[in-house]
Design a protein that fits this description.
heterodimer, A: about 550 residues, alpha/beta, seven-stranded mixed sheet, 17 helices, about 35% helix, B: about 525 residues, eight-stranded mixed sheet, five-stranded parallel sheet, 15 helices, about 30% helix, globular
Chain lengths: ~550, ~525
């Protein structure tokens, strides 16, 4: 029987990050992955001959630079190509271009409204300030307000100090910002619908909320964090697809001597006498370890892998009521040539970025109303990219891969399970929306992979297909994520830890949960995490 | 030293303080200031005091007692301090009846359903558990209502003691309860109700009560705050109670008026303030629309903050950032008020005679409220709205001729900014509402003598309420406490020396509680600079 110091259940990016840090700290670590490949939701798969897909997550926007440095990911092959533009197509045949460069962006805004162009500076300044407050929180364990342990208190003081650095009006602004809807927030700056629509997208991606729901302004930060770093990593494609991120992590892990076992699905986590002693695989094989770290989401971990009876009742109750609520789908398309968008100028750089077809916030909100009623959006909000415009390694020359992130898409269709017919109808709404702006689009399609929350749950293992392993609402953030009193990566079972996006600070290919979990584990082992760089507070 | 010590110009028109607006908050502020022996003048634009609690004849022989049709949050300390005796001696709590049009009504008795008729025993128990938790949590929030919001950066002893008390209140019941409070505080009411309840009528009621008068649906994050706010109100020492005063809602305005008058306050009606006099950041008096001028070192504005700073005060006195934040106050009303003149008392299906005295809520389920909310987001009224009904003439016979009856309903959602415009929209919306009433009280249509529907636009004109919003601004997380109405004016004091806010637009918000006015007066008397 195999024995390790630590087992990681699930080889997603967070699991691999934890694995790397633990292995580098001198533990003997094994990653157990049910699929024949690692990567979880950050994978590159050749699903059609000659076409490599980033078939789940699709941009490398938030991955923490500290982790890239610590784990030497560039050395292990991770290259991030910053993308060059973007566009929102409007129904009147025009478009709103976006550029990475603030001033060009401002000029484009001015094309629609001088006032909005003016406001954009104010907007950028205010949002950056909010990011500056939230960013240090990402790479720290959230203090437990009712922990009363010295570390909780000192952390609370640290946060109070960070907050104290704000002027009273800035503090008040922050309190407003955290509780506002992205729609109300944008109304305070801009007057042009398409500009508001463009900026609102980051407030709702991945959430089961509409742009008019309070709390979506905060979600905006979640997607802007990368932006603020100003590092090349911010907003780009991983060369070779998102799998490049987890491939680099795997190499870094194996270079440090770690073991990766694919096709090794964990069936149960042993929890005898309130502590764990390892896992049993679907094959029946037992693998022993004093430490087990679950990269799976909190529901899967404690309602499926762990025997409920061994857990405190109130904990189980909270886990059962933890909100997952998948709200998005993914349509991955192989194209035999680059689609044309007549609205864009010839050779425009915009196509080498994120493309959108929703030009008003009302359309987004109505798309959300469909989701609330248990239907996929008739007029969905797409976040579309063609990474092959910048990365020639994913397809043969001239061919292209298009990633369409689709919101909204419910975990169940009007209360019943998805059928293949539903899935195809869902895909059709997506393709037809794109085709409206790109003549001949259908004819270019060589192959298409459609993923509703059903596929995301069954194939990737995300409960209800929630890409963040749990809603990013106040009741599930910081010391509340995933369960109040268990928000520091530990569980009620000694030796069993969580490192997935169900934990603080949540989803996105960020790696922060994985790093923070490793930090706590090493603390419990009384090992100084010397190879772990401090989270940087200053931008 | 208080701003009072600045000597007022010696003219016949000089006062120690001038209160703009004789709504209940204005009168509460005046009464509290008057008790200190100062010379106070209250100026009211309308021909009678009372503000939104001002009655009006909406049809020959039929009167409506004003916007609010019941009392559920009159603050006991304010009532004691100002000698307001409104709650009926009987002490009989007014029930809440929930109608879904299919099942027998669910009737909540006592203070917010201490006992419930018409639901299963287990459901009543579940509601009891949830009620206990929410009342406990609201009790913690309540501490922050009776004092100015803590001024960040300048936290005072009072603030610290309140925070400490709140903190103690949190751990009193143990970590678990404390953690649950921090988890639930900004949740939506739907998820909370779903965790505890099965019965759609009870869920519908919670959804309705949490969102009434607020532009949120039950599934919008932070919507639970609306329910907390309701439960911070108490009647006969019990949270969540409600009543109609002895002699009806028409007794509310006179009670506040009496409280102010007995402290020697001068009240002038039909005196519309045209301008607040201010020079280099200091207020010194007001000028009426008719040109009459009054001087005072303290000006207390009990009208909407937006009116105060954008219309009454010369914008040149405020900086752009402040004016911007004032213009950003979201204050678009979402509730329509219906007053019906009926030949006789309606017979509401499934209701016993005495329960017709209650608050009658029409909400089938959480989904019903959420679906009713959807169109409001796009400037359309709901084709299937939810509403709260009271029969005012049962408590106050003078509102209707003998044998006849009045019906008052608050209907949501009816957005202020209606795309088609209310001139065109009103008849259509009225038809929808009357059809719903007909379904729940068959035959009521034939007994209607007159129907008066006030859209938010009408409420705006009738009561000088920008947006027709009775809270003088959305009661949402981002417009509460230190952000109500906006940070720089959140502690009743404003950037203009000597100018104070005392309306529902200030902390803690709307409803007939008297707190905004009373807190403002206490803050002024305390002599605190900010």
């Amino acid at each position: 029987m195999q024995t390790y110091d630590a087992l990681i259940v699930g080889g997603g990016h967070n699991g691999l990050v934890t694995a790397c840090y633990l292995q580098r700290a001198g533990l003997n670590v094994a990653v157990l992955e049910k699929n024949g490949w690692v990567g979880g939701a950050a994978t590159s798969r050749e699903l059609a001959p000659g076409f490599v897909y980033s078939n789940c997550s699709y941009v490398c926007s938030l991955f923490r630079p500290e982790i890239m440095r610590d784990l030497e990911l560039p050395k292990h092959g991770l290259q991030v190509v910053a993308y060059e533009g973007g566009a929102v197509f409007t129904r009147d045949g025009d478009y709103l271009a976006s550029y990475r460069d603030h001033d060009s962006h401002r000029r484009e805004f001015a094309r629609y409204s001088k006032r909005d162009a003016e406001a954009y500076d104010r907007y950028a300044r205010d949002v950056t300030r909010q990011c500056r407050f939230i960013q240090p929180l990402l790479m720290r364990t959230a203090p437990d307000p009712f922990g009363f342990r010295p570390r909780d208190l000192s952390e609370l003081l640290y946060l109070a100090k960070k907050f104290g650095e704000f002027s009273p009006s800035e503090m008040a602004e922050t309190l407003r910002f955290w509780t506002m809807s992205i729609s109300d927030f944008l109304d305070e700056y801009f007057e042009t619908d398409v500009i508001k629509a463009y900026l609102a997208i980051s407030g709702i991606i991945g959430t089961a909320l509409g742009p008019m729901s309070p709390g979506t302004a905060y979600v905006l930060l979640h997607h802007y964090m990368g932006e603020v770093d100003g590092s090349v990593g911010a907003w780009g494609y991983a060369r070779g697809g998102m799998g490049a991120v987890t491939q680099a992590l795997s190499r870094s892990f194996e270079a440090a001597g770690g073991t990766i076992r694919t096709d090794a699905e964990v069936d149960k986590i042993f929890t005898r006498g309130g502590r764990t002693s390892g896992v049993v695989l679907a094959s029946g094989e037992e693998v022993r370890a004093k430490l087990v770290v679950s990269n799976a989401d909190v529901k899967r971990t404690f309602l499926t892998l762990v025997d409920e009876a061994t857990l405190p009742q109130d904990f189980v109750h909270r886990v059962k009521h933890f909100k997952m609520r998948g709200s998005s789908g993914k349509v991955n398309i192989a194209l035999d040539s680059l689609p044309e968008f007549p609205a864009l100028p010839h050779e425009s750089s915009c196509i080498r970025g994120d493309l959108h077809f929703t030009d008003t916030i009302e359309r987004m909100e109505r798309a959300y109303d469909d989701w609330k009623a248990g239907r996929w959006s008739a007029d969905p909000m797409l976040d579309t990219m063609i990474p092959t415009t910048l990365d020639p390694t994913m397809t043969s020359p001239g061919k292209h891969f298009m990633s369409c992130f689709v919101q909204y898409c419910p975990p169940k269709v009007e209360g019943r399970d998805w059928t293949d017919a539903d899935r195809d109808a869902f895909a059709e709404t997506v393709v037809s929306q794109i085709a409206d702006y790109s003549p001949g689009f259908r004819d270019r399609i060589v192959h298409m992979e459609v993923r509703t929350p059903r596929e995301l749950e069954n194939e990737v293992g995300l409960t209800e297909g929630n890409i963040f392993q749990g809603e990013l609402t106040f009741d599930q953030l910081l010391f509340n994520r995933p369960v109040p009193g268990y928000a520091q990566y530990r569980s009620p079972i000694a030796g069993l830890y969580m490192c997935g996006s169900s934990t603080h600070p949540g989803g996105g290919v960020m790696g922060a949960p994985g790093r923070n979990a490793a930090m706590e584990i090493l603390r419990d082992l009384k090992r100084s995490p010397e190879q772990m760089s401090k989270a940087h507070d200053v931008i | 030293m208080t701003s009072f010590d600045v000597p007022a110009r010696v003219t016949t028109n000089a006062y120690d303080a001038i209160v703009i607006g004789a709504g209940h908050n204005g009168l509460a502020a005046a009464a509290k200031l008057g008790k200190s022996g100062r010379k106070i003048l209250v100026l009211e634009a309308a021909s009678a005091p009372g503000g939104a609690a001002r009655g009006r004849e909406f049809a020959p022989g039929f009167r409506s007692a004003g916007l609010a049709h019941l009392v559920n949050r009159l603050d006991p300390e304010v009532a004691r301090d100002l000698g307001l005796t409104l709650a009926p001696k009987s002490g009989a709590a007014m029930p809440t009846v929930v109608l879904d049009g299919a099942n027998e009504p669910a009737v909540l008795r006592g203070a917010y359903g201490e006992t419930i008729d018409g639901v299963s025993v287990s459901e009543a128990e579940a509601f009891g558990k949830l009620r206990e938790k929410l009342v406990y949590q609201a009790g913690i929030l309540k501490r922050f209502l009776r004092r100015p919001p803590p001024q960040l950066g300048a936290i005072g002893i009072g603030d610290i003691s309140t925070l400490a008390a709140a903190g103690f209140g949190l751990i009193r019941k143990g970590r678990a309860e404390g953690r649950d409070f921090l988890r639930m505080l900004l949740m939506n009411v739907a998820d909370v109700a779903d965790e505890y309840l099965e019965d759609d009528r009870l869920k519908g009621l919670l959804a309705f009560d949490a969102t009434l008068g607020i532009h949120l649906g039950p599934r919008s994050p932070t919507s639970l705050l609306g329910l907390y706010y309701r439960l911070t109100g108490e009647v006969y020492g019990k949270a969540g109670g409600q009543f109609i005063p002895e002699g009806g809602m028409a007794a509310v305005a006179p009670a506040f008026l009496k409280a102010a008058e007995k402290t020697g306050v001068t009240i002038r009606c039909g005196a519309r303030v045209g301008r607040i006099l201010a020079d280099r950041g200091r207020a010194s008096g007001v000028v009426l629309a008719d040109g009459a001028e009054f001087a005072a070192p303290v000006i207390v504005s009990a009208v909407h903050p937006r009116t105060t700073f954008l219309h009454l005060l010369d914008p040149a006195e405020s900086d752009t950032g402040f004016l911007r934040s004032i213009s950003h106050i979201r204050t678009a009303g979402n509730v329509a008020k219906l007053d019906l003149a009926l030949e006789r008392m309606p017979n509401i299906s499934g209701l016993t005679g005495r329960d017709h005295n209650g608050r009658i809520v029409i909400a089938r389920s959480m989904e019903h409220v959420e679906t009713a909310f959807n169109p409001a987001k796009y400037g359309e009224f709901s084709p299937d709205p939810v509403m709260e009904i009271v029969l005012p003439s049962l408590a106050d016979r003078t509102l209707a001729p003998d044998g006849a009856c009045t019906l008052s309903a608050l209907i949501q959602y009816a957005p202020y900014k209606l795309k088609m415009g209310w001139a065109a929209g009103k008849p259509a919306f009225l038809r929808i509402v009357l059809d719903i009433l007909e379904r729940h009280a068959p035959g009521i249509g034939k007994t209607i003598i007159a129907a008066d529907l006030s859209a938010p636009t009408d409420i705006e004109t009738e009561y000088d309420l920008p947006g027709g919003h009775w809270h003088h601004g959305e009661l949402q997380a981002d417009q509460l406490l230190i952000n109500r109405p906006t940070r720089a004016a959140s502690g009743y004091a404003t950037p203009i020396d000597g100018l104070y806010l005392a309306s529902a637009g200030a902390h803690p918000g709307g409803g007939i509680s008297g707190l905004a006015g009373w807190n403002a007066a206490r803050h002024i008397l305390s002599g605190a600079k900010r």
